Structures are given as structure tokens and as C-alpha cells.
Amino acid sequence: MNLPNKLTVIRIFLIPIFMLVLCLPLAWGSVSLGGTTIPVVQVIGAVIFAGASLTDFADGQIARKQHLVTNFGKFADPLADKMLVMTAFIILVSLGKVPAWVAAIIVCRELAVTGLRLIVVENDGQVIAAAMPGKIKTMTQMFSIIFLLLNNVFFAAINLPVGEILLYICLFFTIYSGAEYFINSRSIFADSFDK
After folding, report:
1. How far apart are CA 174 and CA 186, in angstroms?
2. Closest C-alpha among 45, 63, 71 to residue 147
3. Residue 95 and residue 121: Cα distance in Å, rounded?
4. DSSP annotation of 97
5. pLDDT at residue number 137
6. Facing residues of 36 across strands?
């Protein structure tokens, strides 16, 4: 178990902690940040989510630089990312911060692309690398989740809904990058229809 894989496992273990903090009826009160009142559990949830997101960035960087890419990492790293993000969006729907239809599109895309990646690996033996639209999608997802949990605290004074803006940018790149994955892999489906 090398360092990138340990970071992936840590991220997986942070998911239920993140979920419990935000879903259990904990009465820890509120805190005022930048003139905005935020429930303490949302602040703690944002910190946990940000920490988990940093492990996502770090494990990939370390694995590539130190040539520590493993089959476990190829499988578990994207799975951990999807589990973290889908959990966060479902919780944000329950908190009334994200429309259910937006979360449904994001969850469906993540499941569809994960399935596509498995088919490609089975047929070609290659893992589909994330293209730039997919990386933008991931970055905007993570920042939108943090800003939504923190009630746009850093931009509250100018009344700029950064979390919501990033959410819809993320939605655009979710659809765009998902379509791109399927278009670029259309030969796999063409082959299966010919059989």
C-alpha cells in the first residue's frame, strides 16, 4: 500500500464522516463568518470535504511523479472521487442548496462514464484519461460544493452566489465531458452492434 493508495483510502473513510456530520441532528449552533451566519456542521462538513478533495489532488500527483500507479489506484481513486461528490450533492439536495434535477444529471453522468470506462478497459485494456473538460468539471464540482456549504461566505458582502454559479458551470461541463467520453468511445458501441 503506497502513499497515493493510502490517500485514496483516507478519502474513502472521510466520506461516511462527512455524511454523518451533515446528516445527524447535531445542534452545534452557528458561526458568523464574513457577516454570514453558517451552521457549524456545514463549516465542519466543508473542511472535511476540502481535505478529502486535497487528497484527490495529492494522490494523483504523487502517483504520477513517483511512478506509483497501481491497479488498485486506477480503480479506487476515481471511485472514491465519485462517491465523495455524489454523497455531497445528495446531501446538498436534502439541505435545499441544490435542485434535485441538477444532482440527478450529475449522478447519472458519473455512473454512465464509470460504466463506459469499465467497458473500454475490458475491450482495449486502457483506462480513459480525464480530458480538460472533465478536469474543469471536477474542479468546479468541488469548489461549488465548498461554497454552497459555506453559504458563499467569501462573496456574501457583494451578494455574489459563487456556489450557484460554479454549480451551473459544473453542470455544463458535466454534460459536455460526458458526451465527449461517449463520442470518443463510439467505436466500442459500433463494434458491439456489429456482433
Report:
1. 18
2. 45
3. 37
4. S
5. 92
6. 33
Q: Which residue has the cell 456574501?
A: 156
Q: Over the stretch 3-31, which tens digit does the pLDDT of each residue have?
A: 888 898 999 999 999 999 999 988 889 88
The answer to whether the CB of 107 falls within 8 A of the CB of 99 is no
CB 117 within 8 A of CB 128: yes
Residue whose C-alpha cell is 513517483: 66
Question: Phi and psi of 37, rounded to 5°?
Answer: -90, 125
Range 53-61 contact pairs with CB under 8 angstroms and sequence separation of 24 or more: 53/84, 53/142, 53/146, 55/7, 55/8, 55/10, 55/11, 55/14, 56/11, 56/80, 56/81, 56/84, 56/142, 58/4, 58/7, 59/3, 59/4, 59/5, 59/7, 59/8, 59/11, 60/4
Count H helices and E strands in the chain, helices first.
7, 2
Report the predicted TM-score, pTM, of the whole model to 2 decimal places. Answer: 0.88
Residue 45, C-alpha cell as written in the block: 462538513
81, burial (CB in 10 Å: exposed 0-12, middle 13-18, buried 19+): buried
Q: Closest by alpha carbon to 52, among 74, 24, 82, 25? A: 82
Give the torsion through C-alpha atoms of 38, 20, 81, 50, to 10 deg: 30
